[in-house]
């Protein structure tokens, strides 16, 4: 079995605890997506189980793992025999995390990534993660990140050192930052020679509008498929041939130096200027 087909669900959750009906909707989307596309992996956005603006109700929204939401999504994943990656607020021994949770084809939680780079008010409620996550799954090497992580090249460089085949970014990316989304995702594809899948939110929460535009990028940074700003599902493919051809075209994986550069910092004063 190989992880070839990826379905990105541009989802619009209800704001509040997952048991307000959002969990049922997520499970319905898993079943519907499986019936339509038979994907190997179904991806949902950042904080898809509760909505994004949960800072004033974080205690009611955060869940442990295992918990009722991961059990329900696990049952849906097992029923359709697809992996699922979903964003949710997770409570652990260090506090509440903004997490991406990987549930396998049998419905078991297999991995979790905690967002390393909180944005704005997220710092008040979420404990940032320390490690990056690279998954080996069915012949693919995948780097997982969440939203604002996309802005930090050091994480992309770490993925490059681990030779990932694809980067999956789950997001709640807003309209005012739309240009960054459109520029950073293809840059990460190019510098990794890897597919990049940006799975974003749809809809709005009060004055906060989400950009949508969930996009699949080829390893050369070109757009494979893209959604608009409405709820929907994008289905894309990972192929060995495309990865091989791009890495032959652009050999930076072979040419990348393993050593870390030191800085030669030179200060040039204003003496000896024009007369």
UniProtKB/TrEMBL annotation:
Family annotation (SUPFAM superfamilies): Carbon-nitrogen hydrolase
Location of the CN hydrolase domain: 4-240
Listed Basic and acidic residues bias regions: 242-259
InterPro entries: Aliph_Amidase/BUP, C-N_Hydrolase, C-N_Hydrolase_sf
A Pfam family hit: CN_hydrolase
Chain residue ranges for the region called Disordered: 242-275
Record key words, sorted: Acyltransferase, Hydrolase, Lipoprotein, Transferase
Protein name (database record): Nitrilase/cyanide hydratase and apolipoprotein N-acyltransferase
UniProt KW Transferase keyword: yes
Any GO molecular function: acyltransferase activity
Record carries keyword Transmembrane helix: no
Species for this entry: Natronorubrum bangense JCM 10635
């Amino acid at each position: 079995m190989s992880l070839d087909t990826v379905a990105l669900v541009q989802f619009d959750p209800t704001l509040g605890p997952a048991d307000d009906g959002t969990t049922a909707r997520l499970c319905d989307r898993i079943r519907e997506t499986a019936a339509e596309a038979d994907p190997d992996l179904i991806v949902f956005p950042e904080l898809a189980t509760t909505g994004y603006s949960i800072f004033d109700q974080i205690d009611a929204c955060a869940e442990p793992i295992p918990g009722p939401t991961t059990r329900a999504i696990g049952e849906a994943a097992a029923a359709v025999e697809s992996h699922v990656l979903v964003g949710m607020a997770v409570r652990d021994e260090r506090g509440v995390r903004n997490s991406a949770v990987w549930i396998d084809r049998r419905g078991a939680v297999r991995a979790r990534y905690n967002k390393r780079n909180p944005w704005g008010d997220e710092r008040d409620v979420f404990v940032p993660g320390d490690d990056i996550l690279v998954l080996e799954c069915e012949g693919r090497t995948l780097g997982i990140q969440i939203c604002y992580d996309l802005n930090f090249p050091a994480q992309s460089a770490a993925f490059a050192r681990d030779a990932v085949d694809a980067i999956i970014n789950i997001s709640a990316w807003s309209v005012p930052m739309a240009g960054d989304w459109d520029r950073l995702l293809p840059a990460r594809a190019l510098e990794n020679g890897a597919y990049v899948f940006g799975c974003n939110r749809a809809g709005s929460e009060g004055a906060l509008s989400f950009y949508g535009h969930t996009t699949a990028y080829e390893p050369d940074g070109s757009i494979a498929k893209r959604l608009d700003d409405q709820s929907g599902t994008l289905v894309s493919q990972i192929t060995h041939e495309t990865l091989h051809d791009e890495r032959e075209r652009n050999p930076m994986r072979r040419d990348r130096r393993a050593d870390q550069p030191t800085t030669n910092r030179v200060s040039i004063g204003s003496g000896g200027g024009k007369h």
